[in-house]
Amino acid sequence: MNLKQELEARSLFYQCTDEKLFEIYERGGEKFYCGYDPTADSLHLGHFLTLMTAVNFMKRGNTFVLLVGGATGFIGDPSGKDSSRSFLDEHQLRHNQEGITKQVKQLLENLKKITGQDFQFEVVNNYDFYAQMNVFDFFAHVGKYITVNTMLSKDSIKKRITDPNLSITYTEFSYMLLQGYDFLHLFEDERVKLQIGGSDQWGNIVTGTEMIRKKLGNETEVYAMTIPLMMDSTGKKFGKSEGNSVRLDPNKNSPYFVYQFLMNTHDSDVEKYLKAFTLLSIEKVDAIVAQHQQQPELRYGQQQLANYLIEIIFGEVAVQQAQNITEILFGSEDKMQIIAQMSKGDLEALAKETGSVKFEGEERRILELLVESGLAPSNGEAKKLIQSGSIVLNEIKVGNVTQVLKKSDLINGVALLRKGKKSYKLILS
User: Considering only CA atoms, which of 312, 342, 323 is closest in space to residue 426?
Assistant: First the structure.
């Protein structure tokens, strides 16, 4: 498939200013960009739409210019917002910029390992475009190219000024001028001809193409392309979990957490997610979906989706870690055999998911560990749980209220304490 066909097959194309862009970028050797405001220090799963769209351009030999919005991040994009964003100070913005840049580099490095392709990309910070520009320069070199009439016609602005319960500050109103000038600057300095972004960014993106043509002439070849927003079967944006974005920072959302989020994908969403968020061929995706549909209860499609995305986001080692923790908490295989082979890092990751208790001395009463771990509120309740057969240590039922855990009982330096079928705590040496 050519570029346009592939983007359409993967549901990564919504609209563009001119389909000629596909011929140009099919040949390779061009630059394109997408911007991310550093409103947080981590990307989330929703960013995968633009990132994987960028990868489909890069695998044809084009260079991805990742624009980190050090300047636009000060203001906050009003698109899709009913109220102003909180202002971030320079220190926080710089921290966020570093986090986002590091994550994208890691994602592309992981994809390079998976595919064997050397994806070309550059990182720029739009703060550098404005650091030496005063307000008079801004009006002279930016503001004069876009009319207020044009700005008022954009959906992101129109909603905020027509609803009597909403309002917009001049600062936010100026956001599209900054994004427009980003494109102008990158075109003049780097010959970047294309900006991509989510469909909600259309107004901001075409402000850039308009600014370029007003300054440099209507025949100037620059392009805009947007990607449809990805919704799940319930109408919620992809990458949302209980109202929150699923972050790609392992310190915020562990590989296991993200793995479980993907494993919980609805059957009807598996095919479109595999096409949009992986580089698996369309034929391979069709084969996975066909196998999945034979026995949906085995969740084969979800497993393939989770394995692939975790490898892209966190690396190959994280896939095995997430699989091991999943098997220990939900599977039927020998849990202690899995634990015996886990690395120190994997055990620490398991402890974060289950909660843990420190093992000290040569032996500890199971009764005490139950209370200390929070599996039982009191010694009395702990005794009842043991007597009812609800407590399991290292997958062996605890049959005596006086039973102890000895240091020699630890396996790979840990013990696994379970209440009922699903409540686990890890005992760490």
Answer: 342
Q: How confident is the model at residue 85 (pLDDT cuts 50, 70, 90)?
A: low
Written as one string, the DSSP assignment of 91-136 is HHHHHHHHHHHHHHHHHHHHHHHHH-----EEEEETHHHHTT--HH
Domains and CATH numbers, the chain: 3-227 (3.40.50.620), 240-332 (1.10.240.10), 353-428 (3.10.290.10)
What percent of the chain is helix, strand and coil (3-state, nearest 5)? 55, 15, 30
Task: Quick: pLDDT tens for 94-145.
Answer: 888 899 999 988 999 999 999 999 899 999 999 899 888 898 998 888 888 8
Residue 258's nearest CA partner among 295, 312, 300 is: 312
> Is pLDDT of 80 > 60?
no
Q: What Å distances lie between residue 271 and 116, 266, 292, 302, CA to CA? A: 24, 10, 10, 9
The strand pair at 356-358 and 423-428 is best described as: parallel
Residue by residue, DSSP assigns 336-388 as HHHHHT--HHHHHHHHHHH-EEE--SSEEEHHHHHHHHTSSSSHHHHHHHHHT
Task: Tell me the per-residue pLDDT of 239-262, one tens digit each, with 9 for 90 and over.
Answer: 877 667 888 888 888 999 999 999
